[in-house]
Each structure stands twice: as structure tokens, then as C-alpha cells.
Amino acid sequence: MPRSRLGPLAIESKLGDHPSTSSVWRAIHVQQKKAVAVKVFSAPFGGTPEARQAFADEWERLKLLSHPGLARCYGGGFEDADAYLAYELIEGETLATQIERNGRLSWENALEVGQAIAEALEYLHSQNVSHGAIVPDKIVVAGFAPVLVDLRLDRFGSPFRTSRPPSLDLVARQAPELAAPGVAGAADQCTPASDLYAFGALLYHAITGRLPIQGDSIEQVRAAVQSEIPESPASIVLQCPVWFDKLIMQLLEKDPVNRPPSATAVKLQLAEVRKRSLSRAGVAEHVSSGFSPLQVTNQQDKDEARKLLGRDVVDLKAIEEDDDEIPDATVWHDQPWFLIGGLVAILILLAYVAWPASEATLRKQAENLIAIDTRSALAEAESHPLRQLIVRFPDSPNAEWAQQQIDRINVIQFLHQLKVKIKNNLPIKNQGELLHKQAQAYENNGDFAEAIDKYRSMVTVLGEDAEYETAVNAARYKIAILKDQAGKDSDARKIVQNRLDEADQFLAEGRVVEARNIWYSLVELYGDNSDLKPLIDVAQSKLADKLQE
């Protein structure tokens, strides 16, 4: 850019895993005192009036999109030859950083990320929006669930777009219909199907630590994307469940028609992966369920089939010689009675799901999710059953309980995000975070009394400001924890005081060596404890007096 102001925004520092090549900046809205992420685009001569109007229409539509798994767009503007979009600032590690640091993710973590992103894609696609860039560095893991950032409606067709040429990594993630030689990636070619392919590439990379397609040049990778079938994730990472492996390979199908029909279908399949994995169903059972004897073509395969399935295989030669007695080879799950019964069961299930849950059911759902105590489970508890209790049963005691749980979840999320910021030396965005950071510094040094004073002052100073409600609740939460710790320290003070009294008794009896040993042990054990410092100073002073005698 570089500049210090952009419309109403004061520019601070670059964001992204690679700031030197990033076009995203951390900024503060001067009037609202709110931190945002702003993406800046350069266009020759500022773009035509028609292009500027199209860009303005785009950000107005983006402002209407709202989902917990998506970073909100607050709008945009123009400044000289630059245009910009302002987004909700999501601070934390990107998925790319996590994969790079660990080499790969466990399949359980990849599944957790996948479920959150699938829900975000389900919402986007329901709004007729395709993201077009489902890549690890556009997924920020902060709080309880991953968040997809950088929403665009016209990612490739607008003159206000990133001008960097596509990298090998980006092309290897693109669907074949976008990465074909000679295809530049027009906006109208970005579809839900191409998003799902990129989502499959994301899951593949997360689980295996490698891209599904490899190559040394853009041309080589583009050609490979069209025809090369990736090695299955389960063959690289043996712990990967067969059901997860099958879904990822289906997402990476070359023909869009062969991919899952929608993000909703993917979300349901991911839920089924979790269910089956938790049930510990045998892999051989699911592999063999799709085994068709008519696919056996030689004696070796027949023997293998008998070994795997434990039964004789149809003799293909006999079938070929007797055309009048061809057996019905339709597997049981393709029989009409099963399909009709399955359809009826699905209709009953849909009716059950569509029926609003009762107050008791919502409470039970929330309790079960809270008991799981993972980031995604707590986020799900807050966004659905707890919110439903408050909206649908506002006068019920359960509504009050639900609000208490939401406040607790918000506190846990606030403290987690602050921990991430402090650990990664990220900017502190407001007074609440700054005071918490200062209090935690005392806490980490063992000075609980000073930390409690800091937290109490925060409650006094910010307690009436609705903007800092979560920070104040977090301060009260920390005060309760530290008071409990201080109670334990009071027992330690009693112990130290009793030992000092014992040393004084030894000294009065002339048993100087025993007294000195007590003082030495107290200094050795508690010399670094700031809460016990006055008592330890007494021991040190008496030691010094005896050494001078």
C-alpha cells in the first residue's frame, strides 16, 4: 500500500501466515474503535464506474451473509486507485500453520475441522454463493471452532482481486473443471461442486500432510489434476477410518456429477463417519458388504473371496454356459423391498427431525454437549440448544440456566483467545484484554494477591460497560479461582508460621543449630513464593543475624 489511513480505518500491521506477500491488514475503525481485517485491492486507474458499482453491490450482498463458521464482511470502499473490503477480525492460528507445525493432523482433528467447514459451506451454498478458495490459510482456528475467512462473490472475475499468479499449491487444490489448461478460473465456473472438490483436497492435506496431486510445474500439475487418481488417505495414514477415506476420495472425483450432491450431504456423511468410528464397527464388515461375487474373474480372486467372505463364490463359467438359469445377483440393499422400506424410514426420520424439540430435550442436548467439553461441542451447544431454550422458553428456569452456560462458554472462549494472542505475540485489541494480560502476568509470577486486585479493578472500571461484559465475567471467574488458590496458600502460611515459632522456641532453649536448620529449610522451600515473602524475610533476617554473631 503503504498508508496509515484507508477511509475510516487506521492501518496497523499486515496479517497472514506470510505477511510479506499478504494484502490483508489489521486496522481500527476510528469512530467505532473496533479492530477489523481489511483486504486491499489495486486496480489500474481505480477501475471503471461499472466495475466500482459492481464491487459496491458485492460488498452490500456480502454484508447480509451471517454464520458462526464465516468471518462477517462489514462493507468496503474506495481510496484513490485502491479498493478494500473490511471483515470481522478472527485472531488465532490458521489451519495451514497447524499442519505445517505438526506435519499433519490426526483424523479426529481433521474430522472436527471438516464438520465445521461443511456447515459453513452448507450455509454459503444455500445463499447461492461459492467460496472459491477453500484452502488451509483461509481457515482460522480461534475460540471453539474453525472459521472460514475471505468471502467473495466474484473472486476471479472482478478487477478488484488479488493479482498474484496461481501457485502450484493452489492449482493442485482446484477442481479439474477449474484447473484445466487454458482455463483462467472465471467466476461463473466456481460452483458448489468445485468448492466440494477443494474441501476434499483440504481434508486430504490435513490427514496426510501432502497434497492429493503433485508436480514440478503449473502445467504438469494442471495435467495431473485432470487424470491422476490420488493415493487414498487410508493407505498413507493407516489410522484413517475407511468411511472417512471413502468420503474424501468421493469429494476428489474428477467428474462433478460423481461428487456428493451438496454440502448438506457431506455434513451428514461426516456425522456418519464420527458415529461409525465411535461405534468401532469392523472395517472388514463394511468393506465386504459391497463385495460382489460377479466381479470375480479368475481362480485366484475366487479363492481370495472365499477366504474373505467365508462362503463359496458363484462359478462364472457355469453362469456363462447356462443362459436360462442366471441367478438374481442383486445385492440385498438394492432389492425393491429394502429401498421402499428405507424411503419410509427416511420420511419418518425427517418428520421427527422437523418436529421442534421439547424444553426437556433441548436441556438434555445442551448438557450432553457441555459434558463432551470440546471446542466444537461447546460451540454447538451455544449455537443451538442453549439459544433455542432462551428464544422459545424465555420465562422458564431453563432459560436462565442456558444464559449462565452461554456466559461461561463465552468466558472460556475469551480466555482461550487471549492465551493464543499472548502466546503468539498478537496485538491486544481493547482495554479488557490489556487488563487481563497484566493480571495474568502477576498470576504467572505467583503474585496472586496483586492479580486479584487487578481483576477486581477491572470489574470496577469496566463492569457497567456492555462492550466488556465477557471480559468482566472472565475477571470474576479468575477471582474465584485465585481465591481458592489463596485459601490453599493461607494453609501454607500457617505451616510456615508454626515452623518459625518452633525455631524461636529452639533459639530460646539455646538450640541454635536446630533453629538455623528450620530457617534454612523455609528459605529453600518457599523462597520463590511471593505470598509468603514477609514470613520468609523473617527467616532470612534471623539467619543473617546468627551468621554475624
Structure explained in plain terms:
The structure is a single chain. This protein folds into four domains: 5-88, Phosphorylase Kinase, domain 1; 93-285, Transferase(Phosphotransferase) domain 1 (Transferase(Phosphotransferase), domain 1, Orthogonal Bundle); 296-337, no CATH class; 430-549, no CATH class. It is built from 22 helices and nine strands. The radius of gyration is 31 Å and the shape is globular. The model is unreliable at 183-188, 281-298 and 304-327 (pLDDT under 50). A hairpin with a 2-residue loop joins strand 8 (139-142) and strand 9. It is 57% helix and 9% strand. It starts with a strand and ends with a helix.
Query: CATH homologous superfamily of the largest domain?
Result: Transferase(Phosphotransferase) domain 1
Question: In percent, how helical is the residue content?
Answer: 55-70%
CATH architecture of the largest domain: Orthogonal Bundle
What name does the CATH topology of the largest domain carry? Answer: Transferase(Phosphotransferase), domain 1
What does the average pLDDT come to?
78
Please outline the major beta sheet: 6 strands, antiparallel
Number of strands: 9
Count of all domains: 4
Distance between the termini: 72 Å
Rg, rounded, reads: 31 Å
CATH class of the largest domain: Mainly Alpha
Strand order within the widest sheet?
A: 1-2-3-4-6-5
What overall geometry do the principal axes of the alpha carbons give?
globular
What is the strand content? Answer: 5-15%
Structural class: alpha+beta
Total DSSP helices: 22
Low-confidence parts, pLDDT < 50 over ≥5 residues?
183-188, 281-298, 304-327
